Automatic annotation (TrEMBL), chains A, B, C, D:
Belongs to the YigI thioesterase family. This is Medium/long-chain acyl-CoA thioesterase YigI. Pfam families: 4HBT (PF03061). Residues 51-124 form the Thioesterase domain. CDD domains: PaaI_thioesterase. It comes from the Bacteria. Coiled coil: none annotated. GO terms for molecular function: fatty acyl-CoA hydrolase activity. The keyword Hydrolase applies.
Length: 146, 146, 146, 146
């Protein structure tokens, strides 16, 4: 993974802080690396679906943000990123005290970067893979239009 | 669309009320019909991404809930539903005062029901399609395991 | 749908004729319109999967080509198109004497155009929806690199 | 990966031999293991798209068959498998003398098994990742209906 912007962690952290949805959900940025990003989400009953598990929308939110920021670590200074599409398979009920979305760039392209994110549920200290996301992230030079 | 449970609206509304994430986001159930469901989400800056638009995770949350409930209107009494996978294309920046997710069952199967949801942004009274989701919803007879 | 290249049908037909896989499968271009395309595939046992139905790969091939050409009708003269990702739900067994993939542009963008294709199986004169595809098609000005 | 049918390789090879599309494309089963499968496709101009590269439909065909058979290695004796949905990201132009689809089960479930496939292009002895697929494969006890 080739990093062109040495300040990639700073720009990712600064952008993450502007994602109000992450605050609303209670998600935190754990780690950022070249082409990788990890986000943590403590479970709260306010994030549940009808059976009390984490809602697929919350799972997708952290998996998508992690994917976008994994891509963002590799984009040139001054550009921004946009998710153009994402796909998530919900592999097992999202039950746990906390969740981790770990994203990794699969292919960095000039216009589109493809990223995968794995979401793990932690229950009584045991990690279990509960979701798998693939996303296409577009690099936008300056403006934010697709 | 064949409805086997005449109380489908009641069961959908009762289940929606248990989806705490919908409350946390501020989403409301607008309409339920045989194989259809509509959810409304007023914009709030607490749901934003880094540019202030609606975060893809919030867009996906209402599109997924609408899809799940569209499927749920058609399932037999006593069963529950689970999203096994979803895919969303983010077609234009999610900018607006409010958003509507409108879901429609494409194919109702015994085990899997495939549903599409369109998400519209309303800006100054103008509706604009901003996202398109496809989801596979599994009907689970009693338990909630995949 | 705004057509910028009045010769869109000619360019689509000429490009389709170069898609050797379509010949190998026995597929034909039926109709082209602004933002739409229809491809027909007569069933042949040479296209089967293990149960004798049409292989998902053949279903996807015509759904993808139809989607790409629906997008191509709207792109400027001199540009080419590339599928960057596609998603297909196989809704019922692909059983029939012939199949039709009908694609329609959902959102035409400068860089990415999102298209849906429905695949219908025709059995004893009855059409049945058997697959639903969504694809992101990239417009490439001159070269063919992503 | 837990194998319940010790004859898994035999049943996979026997089923692959019935997939006529694989013969039509010229694809061969290379390797089968518990939860894994590899298929090889030599390039032929008869499989091309309009620029002469491998058509996305051919790429998807081998990636899907590999995914289905990776899942099939893990299903109980007497059952069959069906792809219910698949998603593929086309990461770079499919240019090469031969292609390999390598599938690996991500999560084996009772009803649905989620599998990923990577497709590599081999050009002058160099392997390059050109596509990434995720598929949901349904285990069907006896019949073949979804």
């Amino acid at each position: 993974m080739i990093v062109s912007d040495a300040d990639y962690e700073l720009k990712v952290r600064s952008s993450f802080d502007k994602q109000n949805l992450m605050k609303t959900l209670g998600a935190q940025l754990v780690a950022v690396g070249p082409g990788t990003c990890e986000i943590e989400l403590p479970f709260s009953s306010s994030l549940g679906q009808q059976h009390g598990f984490l809602h697929a929308g919350a799972t997708t939110s952290i998996a998508d943000s992690a994917a976008g920021y994994a891509a963002y670590t590799l984009t040139p200074k001054g550009s921004s990123v946009l998710t153009t599409e994402l796909k998530i398979n919900l592999l097992s009920p999202a039950q746990g005290e906390r969740f981790f979305a770990r994203a990794e760039v699969l292919k960095a392209g000039k216009t589109l970067t493809v990223v995968t994110s794995k979401v793990f549920a932690v229950q009584k200290g045991q990690e279990k893979l509960c979701a798998f996301l693939t996303a296409s992230i577009m690099t936008v030079p300056h403006a934010e239009t697709i």
